[in-house]
């Protein structure tokens, strides 16, 4: 890619992980159909359309808007045509439930675009909405891949929680580094305590999930690796100079969570297939 072409690719590297982890989870843990593939391509195309849209609205600077507007228009047209074509085809090939489920990421995405146009995509509200939008993609994809409602919602919840935890610890590290007054330090300490408590709660839910009677909720245990890593970071209080190391640590933890999610989904499917033949109830 040339320099000008790279500008049409979203710059937020963390967003790629927030988008791909739910999609990969569904494809590895479920039974993807043609509709699942089409809807996934449509979701990725919508994600890629974000950058040229921001360029056209001047959120990447007036100079970039002036110099790259033509390329941005072409890129936006291509991505929107790809998203609409694959999205409509996927909707026509899937069930009514999945068609309604597509509305969840679609509505969240529209709200996110409105925030991004105003330059608020990197605010706390914007990052929370982005995590919710990207993780909710697992809902229609999971249902179309036959994961079941409980497992699908659990998968979306896992990636939402892990994304929010990673975002929170990074923002906390930056805020603590930029703190200049006692009041700023006090706010940072309060956020640190809250983050530690949330991590402990996520770990407790994850540890207890396999002992529950709802097999679909076993997937919640996969959030434990990310929660543990974030907890360690919150306790050790690394400086902003360690952001790169923190980022790679979060990626490694998310990979562990991905393996755990996929393994658990396969176990649930095997259990659902065997349970009707058992001469006694499991729970």
What does it look like?
- The protein has two domains: 1-147, Tetracycline Repressor, domain 2 (Orthogonal Bundle), CATH 1.10.357; 148-276, no CATH class.
- It has 283 residues and is mainly alpha-helical.
- It is 77% helix and 0% strand.
- α4 (50-56) packs antiparallel against α5 (62-93).
- Mean pLDDT is 87; it is low at 1-6 and 274-283.
- Spatial shape: flat
The CATH architecture of the largest domain can be given as Orthogonal Bundle
Tally the structural domains. 2
Largest sheet: none
SSE class: mainly alpha
Could you give a quick summary of the protein structure above?
With 283 residues, this protein is mainly alpha-helical. The protein is 77% helix and 0% strand. It has 13 helices and no strands.
List the helices and strands and how they pair.
Blueprint: H1 3-6, H2 13-29, H3 34-48, H4 50-56, H5 62-93, H6 96-101, H7 103-117, H8 124-136, H9 138-144, H10 149-178, H11 182-208, H12 224-236, H13 243-274
Helix pairs in contact: 2-8, 2-10, 2-13, 3-5, 3-9, 4-5, 7-8, 8-10, 9-10, 10-11, 10-12, 10-13, 11-12, 12-13
Supply the key terms.
283 residues; 13 helices; 77% helix; mainly alpha; disordered C terminus; flat; disordered N terminus; Tetracycline Repressor, domain 2
